[in-house]
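ARCHIVE CARD
Drawer: 12
Card no.: 0347
Subject: one protein chain, sequence and derived structure
Cross-reference: see card 0346
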Amino acid sequence: MDEVTQAVENLKKEWSQAVEQLEVCIAAIESCGKMGKGTEEAMSLPRLNGSAQDALQLLNALQCRLDLLAEQLPTFEEVQSGQATLGSWKEQYQRLRVNLRSANLQAKANIGKAAQEERGLLLGGGEESTVRRRNLQTKAGMTSAAESITESLRRSRQLMVQMF
């Protein structure tokens, strides 16, 4: 097997791995907000979308590399096969982009629904509402304390810098 043919085979393996990774990201995005923790899960959505965009960029780069390599294959049949593979990759890439968009819309709907339910529980009264409110206040208190400590450390550092 010559070098170009081997490079094309390696690209095909890389493509398969990148597609699998992207499909995992899409599934994770689609299920975002379904666990009932809408606001907490919403914070992981940008990270998931970043991973998905990275995978899409990798797929696009692999398409470009295959496009260049397909013309260099040794036989006419292999060139045609490479171009057919490239065509199917382009279709698959477009399907994956559409699936990612649909997953994001589903996640947005899930998160909105979970946030609405959470709001209803917080305002609804009862024991569960009190527990949720207390948890939120505790989280807010911890955040406030952490910010206060950070600011205190900043001031201490500035004083130390001014002394020397």
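Annotation on reverse: Residues 139 and 153 are 21 Å apart (CA to CA). DSSP finds five helices and no strands in the chain.
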